[in-house]
Design a protein that fits this description.
Belongs to the glycerate kinase type-1 family. GO terms for molecular function: glycerate kinase activity. One of its GO terms (biological process) is organic acid phosphorylation. This protein has about 240 residues and is an alpha/beta fold. It has 2 domains: about 40 residues, no CATH class; about 200 residues, Glycerate kinase, domain 2. About 30% of the residues lie in helices and about 20% in strands. The chain is built from 7 helices and 9 strands, in the order E-H-E-H-E-E-E-H-H-E-H-E-E-E-H-H. The longest helix has 22 residues. It starts with a strand and ends with a helix.
Length: about 240
């Protein structure tokens, strides 16, 4: 008897490869002579790098990045070939993801996507011209401020003080300076890998859907909503200047 196991990840706990290994072990325990093929799937969340590297015969590379709450994390990024060109695969979930923070410490106001920007910069240092960035499974809700700060964008409060780029900084951002944005991004094609399509706000929007999963109750969404509006307004003003 032959089994093909093609699982996705279990949000916040196991990657698709790990899920497949558990399922395969359970089958072998009951049917010792079974033929089993494990084909990890990915939707942009946990296990995306492992799945694409495994399916495409690529390789992984460990990179030092800022974690969701503090520096000192290590993330796996992948290098695959697509249409004869090298493509770097970066996974938000293993840089600033939910599995990296104990449930009692999850707080999107404190978390940052800075490590994601550092991973992108690392790929650019390696000459990347094409990137796939998996967006699922993150523990952050900073509007991308941390990521952009790591890539050279400066956010400041009303007093001109530089903001680090954590979720809580959404409420303090008053100005955005794009002049330092890494110019190499202009020559890099970036594909966002996501299994959902949702606007930032509204009943079915991102803010309403993620607040509980990332560690905040319903009251937090009002602050995040105002923060998004502040950053978008500041970014628009900078673009018109």
């Amino acid at each position: 008897m032959r089994f093909v196991i093609a699982p996705d990840s279990y949000k916040g706990s196991l990657s698709s490869r790990e899920v497949g290994s558990v399922m395969a072990a359970a089958i072998r325990r009951e049917i010792p002579h079974a033929e089993i093929d494990v084909v990890p799937m990915a939707d942009g969340g946990e296990g995306t790098v492992e799945a694409l590297v495994g399916a495409c015969g690529g390789r992984g590379e460990e990179v030092a990045v800022h974690g969701p709450l503090e520096p000192g994390a290590t993330a796996l990024i992948g290098l695959i070939e697509q249409d004869g060109e090298p493509v770097y695969v970066i996974e938000t979930a293993n840089i600033c993801g939910l599995p990296m923070i104990p449930a009692d410490r999850r707080d999107p106001y404190a978390a940052t996507s800075r490590g994601l920007g550092e991973a992108i910069a690392h790929a650019l240092d390696r000459g990347a011209r094409r990137l796939i960035v998996g967006l699922g499974g993150s523990a952050v809700n900073d509007g991308g401020m941390g990521m952009l700060a790591a890539l050279g964008v400066r956010f400041a409060d009303r007093g001109g003080r530089t903001l680090e780029g954590r979720g809580g900084d959404l409420l303090r951002a008053a100005a955005v300076d794009w002049s330092g944005l890494d110019p190499r991004l202009a020559a890099c094609a970036i594909t966002a890998a996501s299994d959902v399509t949702s606007p930032p706000d509204g009943a079915g929007g991102r803010l309403a859907r993620v607040r509980a999963a990332k560690g905040r109750d319903a009251r937090a969404s009002g602050g995040a909503r105002r923060g998004y509006a502040r950053v978008c307004g500041a970014a628009g003003a900078a673009g018109r200047a």
